[in-house]
Design a protein that fits this description.
Elements lengths: L3 E7 L26 E7 L30 E7 L5 E8 L4 E8 L5 E7 L9 E2 L3 E6 L4 E9 L10 E9 L11 E7 L5 E8 L4 E8 L5 E7 L9 E2 L3 E6 L4 E9 L10 E8 L50
Antiparallel strand pairs: 1-2, 3-10, 4-9, 5-8, 5-10, 6-7, 6-9, 11-18, 12-17, 13-16, 13-18, 14-15, 14-17
Length: 325
Amino acid sequence: RFNSHISIQDGGLPLQGEPGEITDQGIDLKPMAAGYCFVRVDLFKQWSGDADTGVFSITAHNETTFPKMTVGLSLNDQKLARNGDALWFQVPVQAGKKVFALMKKDDRFYSHISMKEGGLPPEGDSGDVADQGVYLKGQEAGYCYVRIGLYQEWSGNPDTGSFSVIAHDESTFPKIMVGETLTEQQMNRYGEVRWYQVPVKAGGKTFVLLDKDSLFFSRISILEGGLPGTGDYGTSTDQAVTMEAVSDGYCYVRLELYKTWSGDPDQGVFDIKAYDENTFPTLAPGDTITDQALKFQGDRIWYQLNFDTPAAFFVDVMKHDNVWE
């Protein structure tokens, strides 16, 4: 690792680039005419203890030769070999259409991921040790570019990492249809993330229920029109999220497995269900639903109660065999 500036100019020698960086770097331009552009790379020291020599490789690409991701196809066994190593990928975009890039790590390491239409993105504002995703809405037909870089938050953090990355558009994104249950979903490590797309209607409410086979810590979040963040809270019990859509389209659900303590489970099996108000499990006044079972501490079941006018109502829970809270 060493600090360097990189800059590019069409038709003449560039000045020193801004800003400088210790990680791998990239630069791009769109030429005004046929001819040549010129690239400058220089080493600098920010502090007296910084490296005063550096070895590197440099590659020039046009849009034809740039490393590509095909929408719907995963690139596996991608490797980041050191602190500051970065990889770039090109993804085709269409005007007015959303494109997503989802990174799935083989194990936990800190990384930044970023995306930009028409040119190389900067490092990215937020890093994470869990799986990551980015998205954008294309302004015109062409390409967007994804940058993934490894960094160390602390000296003992991993300085290598391997991962797969896949590009999706709205037609290829993993889906849950309203009224559908995806069964036997599995997360196999601390920091693994699953994303799901759910169709929504303007003014309608959407509910997503997470039904775990056993206790494990997870975070769940939902967002209309794009990938949600981590979520405000986590718990080991079953979970649910809801939202009211502003327009027709899709919402997206993010589910992450995490550990509070070293002895917590680092894998989990679950079902995940999407509902609207028409398909949500309903308990009508006067109905009795029998043989409902809660399988373990933290198991939850949700019901929807319908009423036409504001009124008081009561729900009785009749327990069998033993007493539980």
